[in-house]
Write a structure and sequence with these properties.
The protein is built from 14 helices and 4 strands. A hairpin with a 5-residue loop joins strand 3 and strand 4. With 323 residues, it is mainly α. A 4-stranded mixed beta sheet has the order 1-2-4-3. It has one domain. The chain is 69% helix and 5% strand.
């Protein structure tokens, strides 16, 4: 197990730097491309150490470590007498950091699911129905939806296997027609691409690599890319960047129902000082997201599958020589 953890951590570090370098060199702004590349960097270090150990056990023999291997943890023990203790301490620290990062995202999800909700169904107004109709692809029909009575400005996708757009009456009342179309288009993208299922898959991969902080960082970056890809779809469908950015701000920061943002929703789980810090971090994330939406950049997802496949092949070959 210790050898697997060491190799998996080394693979994650190499894969993370390799993929982020590709994103920078290729100047990838399309969120879907970044998402696929980071998925490769997240999955390979979890799987390849086991696969290589089964198919190529000779990688841990002296002739391979001293010869073809590009990076070998065994060299540290030979060059530095206290290296084994340092490696053990590093693994312990990495495990603690990885578990904290995982819990940081899991606890709000569990708290949200466990919170009692007494929503009452409401009739869909023509504004919401028109927005959903405009956002849904013609060949797939209108996305499933539900509209509920709530004082909170809620707009999200519910269900991993049968996703549906859920909107509250407060959200419909808070947004004008342009903003509602943009916000609904964003959520429709999640339904079309089954992003809720992808989110749970990413969470499962993070659980598998819970002691690996690099895997946790990549997992969080993938979720940000999922949201950015939905933003790109909304801009493509509506052509209205300002309306989408305004809707994001209205649904996360304005009005009396401020219980929805993560910073406030989990206030009871943290001391006041940490809750305030969390709130500032959340506001900064909203600002970065709006800046990206408003930036005039192309979001064409050119050859994203080809890039991801080529990256997986090259990165897998490179990691074969990291033991």
């Amino acid at each position: 197990m210790r050898d697997y953890l060491v190799e998996s951590l080394l693979h994650s570090i190499v894969a993370g730097f390799f993929v982020e370098a590709l994103i920078a060199v290729w100047r990838l702004d399309a969120a879907r491309c970044r998402l696929l590349l980071r998925l490769v960097a997240l999955c390979l270090p979890l799987v390849l150490p086991l696969l290589f150990g089964w198919l190529a056990p000779f990688r841990h023999e002296d002739w391979f470590i001293d010869g073809p291997a590009l990076l070998a943890a065994a060299h540290w023990s030979e060059a530095w007498p206290i290296a084994p203790r340092v490696v053990s301490l590093t693994l312990t620290a990495a495990g603690a950091i990885g578990a904290m990062l995982f819990a940081r995202d899991l606890v709000p999800v569990v708290a949200e699911c466990a919170a009692p909700r007494n929503f009452r169904s409401a009739d869909p107004g023509h504004r919401f129905a028109d927005a959903l109709e405009a956002a849904s692809p013609a060949d797939k029909g209108r996305a499933p939806f539900a509209i509920i009575h709530s004082a909170e400005p809620l707009l999200f996708v519910r269900g991993a296997f049968a996703p549906a757009v859920v909107v509250s009456t407060e959200a419909v009342a808070r947004l004008d027609d342009r903003q509602l179309r943009a916000a609904v288009a964003h959520e429709t993208a999640h339904v079309i691409r089954r992003d809720a299922m992808l989110g749970w898959i990413v969470m499962a991969l993070r659980l598998a690599g819970i002691v690996n902080p690099v895997a946790q960082i990549l997992g969080r970056a993938i979720i940000r890319d999922v949201e950015a890809a939905a933003d790109d779809y909304a801009v493509e469908v509506t052509g209205d960047r300002v309306a989408l950015a305004t809707a994001i701000v209205k649904l996360t920061t304005e009005g009396p129902a401020t219980a929805r943002p993560v910073a406030c929703r989990n206030r009871t789980l943290r001391p006041d000082l940490l809750a305030a810090l969390w709130g500032r971090m959340g506001a900064a994330a909203v600002e970065r997201r709006c800046r990206r939406v408003l930036a005039r950049r192309t979001s064409a997802e050119t050859r994203s599958n080809v890039r991801a496949t080529a990256t997986a092949v090259v990165l897998g070959t490179l990691l074969f020589f990291v033991v």
